[in-house]
Write a structure and sequence with these properties.
25% strand, 43% helix, 11 helices, alpha/beta, 4-stranded parallel beta sheet, 6-stranded mixed beta sheet
Length: 283
């Protein structure tokens, strides 16, 4: 039986320890800020990105990894006869998964590589990647790995709060008129991502709306506290608030593992300052 290795993209939320422990290959996206290009996680950190984003004249642009970068990674992983499970951010957010598929064909490894749409990103994508990597290390088959990842994907939740709509407006995600009105009224939006489709779940005004959002998600976690093993709290620039939220989750069930970490440039670019997401799945 050939060995199975796991590949993903840099929008994923994983710790450096997890990447090393499970031998996960992370292919970085490309970021452009005012004409200057960076390789995500290689020559720019997530915190540096936010600083540069706030100082930039224009909204940063993120793009999928170049085909050549994918081809090189695939050739390296399959050189010893291994198969590859590639789990990538939602196709609705990026062309990364298509680039990976093209690269597998160019590398002549399409038959040895499964390309999987996480339908999410960040720590939600990370949960799938970790499950695949753990299963691979345990010697499970490709079919068993994909079945497990699909099960996690079907039971995942992404709850996101956007408190500053400036970047969404700049990026054309909101019409100019509705964007101006929303900004004037201090409108915030709650986003979800069912079946890989980013949707506005609710709109509201000010801190009261954010408080109600947190309370709703915490209630759902409370109602399912014995089925939730891991929660990701990913943010743009609110570490203290996220730590408070993490403490509340740990108070619900101390056994729940909570990872608090900065989100990736692809999310920060569109979500903007103050945004954060709560990500988890139920077993």
């Amino acid at each position: 039986m050939s060995k199975i290795k796991v590949m993903t993209d840099s929008s994923v939320q994983l710790t450096s320890e997890e990447i090393k422990k499970y031998n996960i290959t992370v292919v970085p996206l490309t970021i452009t800020i005012d004409g200057q290009s960076y390789v995500d996680g290689v020559d720019i950190t997530r915190s540096d990105f936010v600083k540069k984003m706030n100082a930039a004249k224009n909204l940063p642009k993120t793009s999928q990894p170049p085909i050549g970068r994918f081809v090189d990674a695939i050739k390296k992983l399959t050189a010893d006869g291994s198969q590859v499970t590639g789990i990538f951010l939602a196709k609705t957010l990026s062309g990364t998964i298509d680039a990976a598929r093209q690269a597998a064909e160019i590398a002549g490894q399409s038959e040895n590589m499964i390309i999987f749409d996480s339908e999410l990103t960040d720590r939600a994508e990370g949960f799938q990647v970790l499950a695949a990597a753990r299963d691979a290390q345990a010697g499970k088959s490709m079919d068993e790995i994909i079945a497990h990842v699909k099960q996690i994907r079907n039971d995942q939740k992404l709850e996101m709060m956007v408190v500053n709509l400036k970047n969404l407006i700049k990026g054309g995600r909101l019409g100019a008129l509705s964007g101006r009105i929303a900004t004037m009224l201090n409108i915030r939006i709650a986003l979800q991502m069912p079946k890989g489709e980013l949707k506005v779940a609710k709109k509201g005004r000010g801190k009261k709306f954010t408080k109600a959002f947190n309370e709703r998600v915490l209630k759902e976690i409370t109602d399912n506290k014995d089925r939730i093993k891991e929660v990701g709290l990913s943010y743009v620039d609110t570490p203290e608030l996220m730590q408070e939220l993490a403490n509340q989750i740990k108070a619900i069930n101390p056994k729940i593992d909570v990872l608090v970490a900065e989100t990736s440039p692809i999310i920060a670019t569109h979500a903007g300052n103050g945004a954060y997401a709560i990500l988890y799945y139920m077993e």
